[in-house]
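Both lines are given unchanged directly below:

***
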Amino acid sequence: MGGSELSFGTRALEEEEHMMGPQSDLRTDGVRDVGVSLLSECVILGNSELLALRSEGDVIIGGLFPVHYLVPNSQNTYNSKPQNRPCNGFDDRAFRWMMTMIFALEEINRNPALLPGVTLGYHIMDSCDHIHTSLRALLSLLTHMPSDLFQVRGLVELVKFFGWNWVGTVGTLDDYSRYGIQAFSNQFIQLGGCLAYHLTIPQSPTLGEIGAMADTLQSSNAKVVVVFASEVQLQELFSEFHLLLQGTLGFSFPGVYIPGLREFLLKVRPKAEPGFEFHNMLWEEVFDCRLQFTADPSNINANDFERVIEQYDQHGSKLNTKSRSSTLKTYVGGRMAFKFSAQENTTGSPERPVCTGSEDLSNLQSSYTELSKLLSNLKMVNFTNQFGEKVHFDENGEPVPLYDIINRQKDSNGKIRFVKVGSYHGSVPVDQQLQLNQSKIVWTGGLSQVPVSRCSDPCSPGSRQARRPGEPQCCFDCLPCAEGEISNQTDSTECTKCPEYYWSDKRKVECVAGVDDFLSVYDTMGVILITLALLGVVMTAVITTVFHHFRATPIVRANNSEISFLLLVSLKLCFLCSLPFIGKPSTWTCRLRQAAFGVSFVLCLSCLLVKTIVVLLAFRSTGPGSGAMKLFGPAQQRTLILCTTAPQVCLCAGWLSAAPPYPFRNPTYQASTGKIVVECREPWPAGFYLVLGYIGLLASLCLLLAFLGRKLPDTFNEAKLITFSMIIFCAVWLSFIPAHVSSPGKFTVAVEIFAILASSFGLLLCIFVPKCFIILVRPENNVKKRMIKSPG
C-alpha cells in the first residue's frame, strides 16, 4: 500500500497474541503428535443445541462468549421449527475469558468474608460471534463492559490528535460495525474530516471481492484505515497486507496480572461428562485431535499424562494469564457482580430478575421492573477494586470508559507484540482524556514519524482553501490571498481583509500599517519639479529686469509696457503656484493650490487677450491717434483685465467657501503600491473643471484673435508669438485631461504640475525670449523705424 498506515478499532486487541485470529498455528509438532497418540480413545460429544455452562447460586451471573466464530448457514423453510446447528471454529481465547469469569466467581464464593450467606452462580452460553445466535442463546442476558460509543469517541479523538482528516473505513455487515462506523463518520465529519471510502467485508468473501477491496486500499491516497470488526472477520482481507499491519493502533481494556488464574486454567481437563464440552473443545484445539472417550481416562499412564500436561503447560500460549483487555474485563466483571450482590443484600432486595419464555405478560412486566431496579442499583455502585481502579457507572448505566492504546510492533526476534503507548479515560476533562507517548509508537516500516493522511496538502499561511467541485471538503486547492487580505493560520478556509489604511505584507500573513505616499520634496520627481518651477521664476525675474532696464526702447514700449510687466508678474505667479502641489497635503495647501492656479492663469491669459486686441486694433486704425485706439486705451485695457479675471476670482472664492478641498488618505491605490496616497479630495469636482474650463475659454479666444493677426505687416509681429504660445498652451492642457484622469496616486499631482510648468514656460519663451534676443543681441533692430514695416 505504499507505506499506508492502518488504525484499528476492534472489540478486543490482545497484547500477547497475534492479530491473525484464532487459526494462528502456535503449537509445535511435538505437542501435536503427542496429543493425537495419547488421546485417540476419547469419544466425540454430540452437539445439536447451543452449549452452556451453568452453576446454581443465590445470584446468577449471565455470560455470553464467542467460544466459536463460525456459524453454519441455515436453510429455513419456515414450515417447521428451525434446527440449531453446531457452530465451528473454536476460539481458545474466548474460552479463556469464560474460564476467567468462572474463576472470579469461584474466588468470591470461596471467601466467606466477601459475600456472607450469598452464593454466586453463573449461566454461560456460546454466542458464536453472531448476533442472531447471541439473541437466540440468551435474550435476557444484556451485558455492556463500556458502550461502543465510548470507543468511537476515543477513535475520533485519536484521529484528531494525529491530524488525520482523510481516512478510509472498513467494516462488516453486523450491527457493531454498521453503527460504529456510522457514529464515527458523523463525529469525524463534524470535526472537519472526510471519508475517502468505505469497504464492507461480506460474510463469506470470495477471492475476487478480497482482491477488489485490496485494490481500493492500495489505490487510495488515504494513509489511515479505521476498522470496526473482529480479527476473524479481517483475517482474509488483511492477509494481503500482513507486512503493513505493523504500526497499527487499537483500543484495549487495561489489565494486570490476576493471581491464581494461571493455576486455575491449567486444571482444565477433558471429561466425557456433561458440562465439560468446552473443556474438550479446548484440548481438541490445542492438540489438533478429535476426542473419543472409549476408555476410562483414569487408566492412562500417569507418567504419560503428566508429560502431556507438562507440554500443555509449556506450549499452551493461548492460556497466557498475563493478558490484558478482555481477560481482565471478564475478571473485573465477575468481581463487580459481588459488589452489586452485596449492595442488593443490604437494601433488602434478594430477588434476582429472571425472564423465561414461559412467563406470562404480568411476570414479564415484573421482570422489567426488577431490571429497572437493577439499573438504579448499578448507578449507585462506586468502589475501588484490588487493582486500584475506580469502578462506577454513568447515568445510562454504562461503566466509565478506560482503554489502553496499544501499538502492534515487531520485537528483535521478529515476533509481533503489543506495546501500550497511551490511554483513553472518558471520565476526566476533555483535554486530558487522550494521553499518548508518541516516542513509543512504531509506524509501518519501523518509522517513528507520524504518517500524514490528507486528501490535499495543508494550505500555508498567506493562502486559502478553494474547494474542488464535486469532491469532499478535505480535497481542495490552495490559492494565495488577494492583495490587502491575509491568512495567518494553516488551512484557512478564507482570507481576512485588512482594516482600512492597513495592508498585507509580502507573505500575506500580517496586516501592516500603510505608509503615507505623496509627492515629497525629497523625491527625485519632486526635486526636479521644484527646480523647474524656481528656474521659471528666476528666468521671469531676469526678463523683468531686462525689460525694466530697457523700458524706454521701442520694443518694450510697444503694445503698452504696463501690460507686459503685468504679464511677467502673472507668469511668476504661475510658476510659484506649482509649489503648493509638492509636499504632504494640508488644509491650507489643498485650498491654496487650485485657487492660486486658477487666478494666476486667468490673469496671464487676460493680459495676453488685451495685448492681442491692441495689436489687432493698432493695425486696423489709420494712425496712432485714431478713434479705435482712443476707445481701447490703458484704462479700458485695465478694465478688461479686471473684468476677465473677476469671474475666476468669484468662482474660486465660492468654491472654497462652499466645498473646499481637504486632505484625504486614499487607500484605493494600495492594490498596486501598498501605500496610502495622501491627496486633496474634491467634494465638488465640478468646481475644478469650471476653473479649468474658464481658463480654456480665455485661451481659445486668445488663440483665435492672435491667429487672425498673425499676417499683419510688422517687423516684429507680437500676434505671431502669442499664436505660438497659445498653441503650446492649448496642446498642453488638452493632453493634461486624459493624463490627469489615468494617472494613479501622486502622479496625478505630478501631471498637473507638469502642465502648469509647461504652459508657463511656453508663454515665457514664446513671447519674451525673442524680445530679449533683440534687446540684448540685436540692439540695432530696437528702433522705431525697424519696428514698423511699411505696407506694400
The two ends are 110 Å apart (CA to CA). Residues 463-513 form one domain. The chain has 25 helices and 24 strands. The longest strand covers residues 416-425.
